Structures are given as C-alpha cells and as structure tokens.
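Thread: Membrane protein insertase YidC, structure

OP (GT): Posting the sequence first so everyone is looking at the same thing. Length is 710 residues per the record. Can we get the structure tokens written out before standup tomorrow? I want them in the notebook alongside the other entries.
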Amino acid sequence: MGDNRNMILAVVIAIAIIFGYQFLILQPIQERREAQEAAQVERETGADAGSPSGEAPSATSASGAPSVNSIAPGPTGVMVPRDEALSRTQRIEIRTPALHGSINLAGARLDDLELLRYDATVDSPEPVTLFSPEGAEGAYYAISGWSGAGGAPENLPGPNTVWTQTGGDILTPDSPVTLEYRTGGLVFERTISVDGDYMFTLEDSVTNEGGDAVGLARYGLVRRHGLPGDLQNFFILHEGPVGVVDARFFDRKYGKMEDERLLQRSGTGGWMGIADKYWLAAVAPEGDPQVNAEFRVRGEDNNLRFESNYIRSAETIAPGQTLSSTAFVYGGSKDSGILTRYQDEYSIERFDMAIDWGMFWFMTRPFFFILDQLTDILGNFGLAIMALVVGLKILLFPLNNKAFASMAKMRAVTPKMQEIRERFASDKQRQQQEMMELYKREKINPVAGCIPILPQIPIFFALYKTVFISLDARHANFLYIRDMSSPDPTTLWNLFGLLPYDPSGLPVIGSTLAIGILPIAMGLTMWAQQAMNPPPPDPMQRKIFAFLPIVFTIIMAPFAAALIIYWTWNNFLTILQQYVIMRRHGTEPELEKQAKRAVARLRGKPVSPELKSHDTVGSTPEEKAAVVTDQVLESGPENAGGAGSETKDLNRPLESAPESPLVGTDEKESSDQPEETPATPATTGGNRTRSNPAAKKKRSPARKKPGGRR
C-alpha cells in the first residue's frame, strides 16, 4: 500500500511540474507576444526623445562623456503595415546576391533588409525579414550619424536628417551610392558600399567651410522596438544586446535589460549589436578608436526600445580641413565562416563572438567547425550529427572502459559492503573504518569509476550547445523531418498523422500532447540504457527510475528535432558501448537477461535460475524470501538437499507438485534418522556450549512452506 501511495505521489508531482511549466513559463511568454502583436501603441513623444522632431542627438551625456540620445518620433503614433511605412520616405534600392531592401534617405538609415538565402518558413518562399522601418510592427534598424561637441552647429546629421542622393541609383556590390548633407558651414559626404554577403561600409568625409573650429563625434547604433516575434527565451541561448569593447565581450538578455535599463562600457575599438538565435545586426567603427558604448532600454511597458550603441571620442576640424571617418554596419546571419572572415578582413575584434558559444566555448567552437565540415561532406546535417557522436564515442571509449572496470570491482564487493553496513549499523565510525580496510584489501578506489566520467560531462553539454545553435539545423531535412530546428511535427495522439486532427493546438495541454516519433524513440533508448544495469535495491528508487524515461519524453518533446536526434543516437551508442565493455569484463547486461526472460515466457518455457536477478541487497525480508523461494522451486529438490531428488522432474509445473521440496526433505530426514535427545551441557571441564536461546528450544518436526510470508 505504501509503495502504491508513493507511486501515485510521484505521478502527481510529475503532472504538477508539467502543468506548472505550461502556466508559469510558456503561457506568460505567449501572452506577452500576443499583446505586442495586437497592441497599437503610440510612439515615443518628443519629451522622451529629449529634442524636437528632426533635431540631432546631443553629443554629451550628463557625465560629460559623448552619448547617443534617442531618436525623434516618426510622423505618426499608430502602427501601419510595413509596405505603407516604407512608402513614406525616399529610398535607395539595395540589391545583392544575399540581400534585398532599401536605404531610407531620412537619417540614411538601414531599415529595410531581407535575407535572400533564408526562407521565413519551411512552406513559404518569402525571405527572412531582418530590418523594418519605424512605424511598422517590429521596427528594427541601424543608424550611423554625427553628434556635436565644442563649436558644432545645430542640425548635424541625425536620425531624421534628410540626405541628398548625389551618385548611384541602386546599391549593389559593384556600384556604391553617395549622399550629401550641408549645415552651418559643414559639408558631409557619405559613400555607402556593400559586398556580396552582409557588410555595409559607410565612408564619411566632413569639410569645415566655416571660420571656426568644430568638434564632432561619430556614433553608430542598432535599435529594436519591442521584443522579437520569434523570441525563444531559452536558458542556454542568448538573445539580446551583445558587444565587444576593449577586447572584452559582454551581453545581456532582454529580460535582464528591462530591469537594468542601462549598461555602459568604455575602451578602445570593438563593435555593438543585437543578436537573435540565427541573425545579427551590428555596428562598428574602423580601427581601434576610443569609444563609449552602452546597452539602453527606452520607453515603458509595450513601448520598449532596446538599443546597442557606441560613440567615438570627439575630433576637432579646423577651418578649411577635412575629417575622414569610416564605419561598418552588419545585417545578416550568424554564419561562423562569414563572421570570422570579416573579423580578419576589417579588423573587427572578436566579431565571431556574436555566436553564442556558451561557457564551454573551447569545445563548442571545434565541434561547430567539425559539424560544419561533416555537413558539407555528407550533405545532411542529421548524418553529420550522427557521425560526430560516433567519433566522440570512439575517442572516449578508453575512459568508459576504465570507469566500468572500476565499477565492476565495486559491484563484486557489494555483498561484503552490505555485510559491514548491517554488522556495524549502530557504529558509523567503525563502519567507515571497516569500509576503508575493505578498499585496501581489495585494492579499490571508490571514486575511480567517477573520475573518467567527469571529462565527458562538459563534452556532452558542449555538443548539445553546438547542435542547438547551429545555423545548419534551420530548415534541414532528415528522414520525415523538414526542419531540424523545430520540434518533431508528428504526435502520438493522432497516430502520427493518420487521424485528421492536431491535438497540439488544444489550450494548456496542447504542447504536452505533442509527443512525436523522435521523443518516443529517445524515451525508449533512455529506458534501455537504464536497463543495462541491475535496478536499484530500494523499491521507491526503482519506481522513480522507471518513471524517468516517461517524464523526459514529455519534457523533451517540444525541443528541436536536431537535439532529439542527437540525444537518441547518443543513448543508442552508449548502450552498444556499455554492452561491449560489460561483455569484455565477463558481465551479462541486465537488459540481455530481461530479453532472454521475455523470450522464454513467450515460448512457454521456464526461466532458468541464472537469468533471475540475485541482487536483493537492501530489499525487504519478504522480497528476499520470495526470491530465495523462487530460486529453490525453479532449481528442483536436488538443490534443496533431499535424497533421491534425481528422480524428480525439474520441468514439472509448480502447481502439479504435491509438496514443497523443503517439506519433503524434512520429512525424509525425520523418518530415516532416529530422534536424538539434546545433550546436556557438562558442568565441569570441556568447552561450554554457546549460549543461544533459540538453540535451546526444541525444533518443531514440521516447517512452514517457504512460499508463505512470515
């Protein structure tokens, strides 16, 4: 009854965890997304901007250091369709093999960009939209401008400054465009060029035609209005502002930035941006100038704007002199090869850190490179995962072999250890001393089995991280999977698509019901991996371990298919590896015993005693007695010590035996030998009989059947 109560309690706790995860984590995220998509909020006011519409940002913050203030409000306070927002301003078309979009002449903003190499969804040929203009849902853009210092005129090139196009019609890798803007004796000329991938180069020259020296500081920023619609908010993934200043990488997630509101850094060189799981928008100065950088959150509630910016130290332009300055804007995918190439070509320090390598980056990066190479060789990301895991298993085989050899020695002395525990149950100190003596005699190190496993833990997490962040998993095919970065599309509850309905759309429990073929396969391999070893002696532990594969199947079902493939394949190879190691050490795996027992029962044959589990350490007296009784009944009377047992039929069904073998043995002993009178202990001389109250009692001529409980 107690075991059933514990099992019911474990089931209730597991269900509570599942529903709690749904209500407390998944549902609030979904509600926040829906609120942002449905809301039509007013844009920020001129008071929040700190300057009227069209006015440039100020050059200094309250501390006196150069700073970038907020952008002035757009022409309307209501969200409009993206196409309508694009039609409000004059634009220059962008056309490259990788990009399509336009440059907004108001502020020379990059606020319209589509990534032609990536489809938005598996079923749609529409490209991924990275940048969108202010006023549209999900506004996201990059700006490079100028801020004034000593002697600078008003109306410097800012977020809403309208530039004049002076050269070029369409921006392509072979044809740059030029812009011009004049104010207060200063002439700004900008040449914008783009390569065949995702890097824009903005070369500015500023000529001072006035009579006084002017101080100017160039800035760059990336700004996103609201949270991204595809925000995953997963604990091992970074999504939000990122940057490098003075060779130091730093980042913040959106949720943490909402709390902190402002994070500042200063140093030389670097870059600043905002990263999604697969995409990146970033700005960077040329070279290693002194910069002040910041992550900043503006607005409140549903009108939040997340900003990552930098501003260079102010430079003075004497009358008649010209200042040249170059900046870069990146808008594209987080492709490791491309980011590394830009890092070297443009000397953008640690630009490849835009990819979230994780805390085990020293392993994740080589795994990432190997996985990318295997994908190119094998032509499939799923096969590349499997090949990489096979290679790691072969590499780690010696460590696993050593770990199991140590655990095999520990298993061999388990009965002796249990005997010590029972003998010195009330004296823990003596118990520990006897254990240490046992380890010395048997030459066993109790932690030797764990040490070889420790290096494999970071390897496991690093490979898991690699598969999770890999861009190659997006929209990659494998078997029936069309997108390995999404969950398994099949579900058990509609017979994997045979029934015409989708239970995953049900409220609250829908995501829990989305259990596909891959999660079920993962759960089966997890169970098989547990079954390779004898079950825990404690009944409650056995039930908990038996329930874990079901729990993990439900928890892992919403994960990306690439992760489930990795986990399932890793479990399968672990089972094979453990089987080989156990066989090499002369141990029969428990899973093999279970398979043989199942085959024997299906064929209607009795299960041989050697296939039964003899590990009863820690079991209750009733369980121990039941195991011993089953062994005696299966082995036949000859093993019970009875004479003439050779004539017994060992394969006779249990119900046809008239009496238990132990009963027959006692009767034969009592009939063949005369009853002896217990000897009276001598009063003088000789050895005295050991005092045992139980031994003084006369034994009953008949014994209870061993099958009965005491």
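GT: Both are above now. Quick notes for whoever picks this up: The mean pLDDT is 77. DSSP finds 18 helices and 20 strands in the chain.
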